[in-house]
Write a structure and sequence with these properties.
Elements (H helix, E strand, L loop, with lengths): L2 H16 L10 E2 L2 E2 H16 L7 H18 L3 H27 L4
Antiparallel strand pairs: 1-2
Helix pairs in contact: 1-2, 1-4, 2-3, 2-4, 3-4
Length: 109
């Protein structure tokens, strides 16, 4: 596993935690997705990948998050919130890439 990808994920996670949650998005649902839960789910997925703790449900979780961001991002008209959630989406994409690389390197018994 290229350590630089895991390091990049850790940096993205730190940057995310340093950003304030978008004003007006707490309790808001966009395209049927609760914005606080989307934030929480995306961060939790990245944290599990960072610590190499993903279980069997990882593929389903990734598909769910990818679908959510595909619907939510085009519907956000607030510039700060769009940047905030785009960063989260990028974090999820990098997490998925890391997880894919790990699976490719693990032995198939």
């Amino acid at each position: 596993m290229p350590d630089e990808k895991v390091d990049a994920l850790a940096q993205m996670m730190a940057e995310h935690m340093a950003r304030p949650f978008p004003p007006g998005f707490r309790g808001l649902s966009v395209e049927g997705w609760d914005m606080v839960m989307l934030d929480s789910d995306a961060y939790a997925y990245a944290a599990c990948v960072q610590e190499d703790l993903l279980g069997e449900q990882a593929h389903a979780r990734l598909a769910r998050l990818t679908s959510a961001f595909g619907k939510v991002l085009p519907a956000i008209d607030d510039e700060y919130a769009a940047t905030y959630y785009t960063h989260l989406h990028t974090m999820v994409v990098l997490s998925a890439e890391i997880e894919s690389l790990r699976k490719m390197r693990s032995p198939h018994w």
